[in-house]
Amino acid sequence: MPRFTYTARDRAGKSVSDTLEAPSRRDVLRLLAARGLQVVSANEAISPVAKPRAAKSAPGARPLSARHGGAGGALTRKQRLPFLESLHDLTTSGMSAGEAVRLLSLRIKEPALRALCGALWERVSEGAPLSRAMGNFPAVFDSATVNLIQAGEATGSINDTLTRLIAHLHEQRELRQQLLAALAYPVFMVFVASGVILFFLFFLLPRLQTLLTSLGGELPLSTRILVGLSHFVLHYGIFVVGAAAFGAVAFWRWRQTDVGREASDAWLLRLPLVGPFIVAQTVLSFSQTLSVLLANGITAAEALRMTERQIANRVHRRAFDEATGHVLEGEALSLALSRTQCFPDLVLDRLAVGENTGNVVPSLRDIARSYQRIVSGQLNLFTKVIASGVLLLVFILVGFIAFAIVSAVFKVSGSFKLG
């Protein structure tokens, strides 16, 4: 009997790797599902006896990794939303999820997305439900997405689940795009200002200095400062840039550690403007994610754990983890979150009203809508503050350079006339 090696996750999310004898890969999937394991990969072990049989594969057949969409690791999170939208379009017309996946594997033209659909259909055709097939691609589908699809399959409302999930992913994408758009103009201004300053220091100032030196006379203080700065940049600028790059890389590597990430996240919360923005982003993330999970039938315990993983700030994530522990002990979510002192009082009051009236999901949706506007307003404020600061700095630097040059010209020309 063939022997298969598999990697799976248990209900606690722990990875399990082992071997299993079974007549076929489909039987392996069924046996592991019966044990409550979520299969990540299951492949037949190649033994010296089995190698000749493997060589007799059909002409033109692709290897297993290619059939599963390996393609050099091309499958990423980018394929998640297009796949869900295409699947939703077909299930809305009355097609079953499995048949929709089969059709997508034949009709999709984009290579990476077609490979994903083909790999999903291969698993679905072997008897695996769509949620388990999606769970085999953690690089594309996170645990929250897989659990939502699983809940939709269990309740027979996969189309409604897809609608809510797609709306949620669109909101997250719009927020990321808004953040990038808010930072684009200040970054552009920094590059323009840097180019202007470097042009003065490296191209215009040396020529002007040569002219002024040939005319003789003492340069004013502002010009001497500018010339000294130019000499420093020319002789030591590379060392300053190297030290700054080394410091940035060292800080980035330190931030990748658990201690560094938590410490730097705590510092960010103390910064003006940045701290309130992180709090608002945390409230938006948890209210959006938790409302979608609860609305699709995910149990409160699983929904809270999955929501916790969506919180980016480690300080807030640890606080939410503590609150989740209190909720699992029977405490109300609003009361448990109030103990952390990380969430605004008004948010907790609105959540408490929803708990008392049995309308937790609508309350979370209202909070998410409110904080979507708050985060958008804060991003606009960031744009204005950063852009104004950059413009002010550019005007000061360019004005100082112009003043130093003009004052030197006037002083040297004055001394030349007197001579």
Q: What does this protein look like?
A:
Residues 47-73 have low confidence and may be disordered. The protein has helices at 25-34, 51-54, 64-67, 80-92, 97-107, 111-125, 130-135, 143-155, 158-215, 221-256, 258-270, 274-295, 300-310, 314-328, 333-340, 345-357, 360-418, and strands at 3-9, 15-21, 38-44. It has three domains: 1-56, Ubiquitin-like (UB roll); 68-141, Up-down Bundle (Receptor-associated Protein), CATH 1.20.81.30; 170-419, Type II secretion system (T2SS), domain F (Receptor-associated Protein), CATH 1.20.81. The longest helix is centred in the C-terminal third of the chain and has 59 residues, at 360-418. The N and C termini lie far apart (106 Å). Helix content is 74%, strand content 5%. It is mainly α.
